[in-house]
Amino acid sequence: MNNVSALVQPMFNMMPSPSQASCSIACNLLEILLKDDVFRPATAEYQQQQSSYWSNQQAETRPACRVLPKSPKEVAAAYLLAAFFHCNFAVKGGGHAAFAGASSIQQGITIDLQRLNSTSFNSDRNVTQVGAGNRWIDVYRYLTPQKLAVLGGRVSDIGVSGLTLGGGISYFSGRRGWACDGVVNYEIVLANGKIYNANVSTNPDLYWALRGGGNNFGIVTRLDLETFPQGDMLGGATLYPITANASLFEAYQDFVTNESQDPDAALILAFAYVQGAWGANNNYEYTKPIAKPPVFDKFFAIPTLSSTERITNITDLTVELTTYAPDGFRQTYITATFENDAQLQKKIFDIFLEEMDPIKSLNGSLPAMVMQPITQSVIAQFSKNGGNALGLADAKGPLMLINLAVMWSFPTDDAQIYAATTRVIQRSVSLAKNLGLYNRYIYQNYAAKGQDVFRGYGEESRRRLVRVSEVFDPEGVWQRLQPGYFKVGRF
After folding, report:
1. What residues pair up with 219 in beta bridges, in sequence order?
2. Is the entire prediction scored with pTM above 0.85?
């Protein structure tokens, strides 16, 4: 396999027009080159891989073949053959996007990175090299026994590469930024089929772009992550009656405003319709083993229904959070960002309740409004190591990120649910603009298909992303042949 890229590269230089080739031929050649790493729809392996997606919309998207490369060179070979035959392709890390086509492709080639699953740290134990096919549970199970951690995701089965390329909120964000800020080096297959590194001194513009720029620049095959000591910590879920919503908004506003005084704290505040009733849930996390940190005192004063709060480790906490978003359902996300204001939060919540009322009782439906802070402590980290691409380094903070997350059972309900969630965001954005409390930022990992993520980064950041794309992908392969997910808008 060492010479696969060299064999395919000359064909890439003679790329035919789309009418001269097909994805079927590309899959045939991949079966010759990569033998047991290519799977067609008739195989049991293909069916199993299709079922590994989080959302049913993704699982229902049927590629002509699925490729499971075992090395960066095999990734390059699969990509080059797809490009040569003008075959649309997708790349799957963890497969946790909600909408169809994000990490799979109808009748194209899906390059599934799950076999790029190595994990190791250096002799100084301050950098962990993580294969792009890992999920966060794999990384934490490796590091937790060593009393180490990285800036990573909070849900165990989310993929390392996808979360990080989109930004990546972490329990450690108050002190260290988002997951993209903790990457010290990317290994990546670029449009010419060659394998490069991108870091603060080598290809620094590409390094900047990959920190929030999504899948616009190549296929990341390994991430080298800043690693730090981490023992047990506080975490878990606390349930409240829905009647406590006003008190929760006031406590949330206070926490977001004052979190910079204690950046070891993090939280996720959610309101959801479960088992026939609305309820509130707060996931408190504190990165030290302290049972009642004062930063949460205003929340602790609110009467609760139940709690799983405990001193534990990050592996355990990510497994628990995964139970709130199970596989096997249709899913949608949509997001917007606002300034921190309790009265605005309450008004958005009222809009949410109104718009969700017709859909809350649909078969399998579970609508949720999830609130997460982007505090001043977090924003201050966005400038380190040359900065990231998110366009928030100079933002007027703190900010409030809202994600509407809905799961349901039947495709016949798709249109009604998409319309309702879109109306919530449209009405909330209009309200916030009128109050002077709107922020343009759109968090890529929670964005709905059709949201203009990179214009949400601001024109300065978007134009720089376009320039980097033009340098490293002059023919626009990632824009034209990998249509899934969010594009920087070159064409």
Report:
1. 189
2. yes
Range 420-447 burial, b when 16+ CB lie within 10 A, else e: bbbebbebbbebbeeeebbbebbbbbbb
Q: Residues 128-145: what's their mean pLDDT?
A: 98
Give the DSSP H or E segment for 333: strand 330-339
Is the pLDDT at 13 greater than 60? The verdict is no
Q: Quick check: 131 and 221 in contact, CB under 8 A?
A: yes
* Per-residue CA distances from 99 to 46, 57, 325, 462 (Å): 20, 6, 15, 23
Encode burial over 186-213: b for 16+ CB neighbours within 10 A, e otherwise: bbbbbbbbebeebbeeebeebbbbbbbb
Q: Residue 313 carries which DSSP code?
A: -
Provide the token pair at 323: 């139970």
Give the separation between CA 131 and CA 135, rounded to whole angstroms.
9
Answer whether residue 291 shows pLDDT above 80. yes
- Please state, as a whole number, how many other Cβ atoms lie within 10 Å of the Cβ of residue 20: 10
| pLDDT, position 19 | 32
* 98, 164 Cβ separation under 8 angstroms: no
